[in-house]
Amino acid sequence: MTDVRNREAQEAADKASTYEWGFSSDIEQEFAPKGLNEDTVRYISAKKGEPEWLLDWRLKAYRAWLTMEEVDWAKLDIPAIDYQDAYYYAEPKKKPTLASLDELDPEIRRTYEKLGIPIEEQKVLAGVEGARKVAVDAVFDSVSVATTFRKELEAAGVIFRSISEAVKEYPDLVRKYLGSVVPQRDNYFACLNSAVFSDGTFVYIPEGVRCPMELSTYFRINAENTGQFERTLIVADKGSYVSYLEGCTAPMRDENQLHAAVVEIFAHEDAEVKYSTVQNWYPGDAEGKGGIYNFVTKRALCAGDRSKVSWTQVETGSAITWKYPSCILKGEGSVGEFYSVALTNNYQQADTGTKMIHIGKNSRSTIVSKGISAGRSNNTYRGLVRVNAGAENVRNFTQCDSLLLGDQCGAHTVPYIEVKNPSAQIEHEATTSKISDDQLFYAMQRGLNAEDSVALIVNGFAKEVLQQLPMEFAVEAQKLLGISLEGSVG
Amino acid sequence: MQLDLPSNRAEAWRWSDLSALPALAGEPKFAGTYPDFHQLPWLGDAPEGPRLVFVDGTLDADRSNPGPIRFGPVEARAEDHPLARLAGQQGWSLRLGPDHAPTGPVQIVHISTGAADHLPAEIALDTDAQASIVETYIGSGWTNRLTAIRLAKSARLMLSRRLIGDSGFVSLTDRAELGQAASLISVTLAAGGTDTRLDGRIDLQGEEGFAEAGGTLLARGRQRHDANLVLRHSAAHGMSRQVWRSVADDKATCSVAARVEVARAAQKTDGEQSLRGLLLQRSATINAKPELEIFADDVKCAHGATVGEIDRNALFYLASRGVPVEEAKALLTQAFVADAIDRIGEEAVREAFHADAMAWFGFPLPLGEEGARREAVGR
Question: Which pLDDT tens digit goes with each residue over B233-249?
Answer without folding.
Answer: 999 999 999 999 999 99
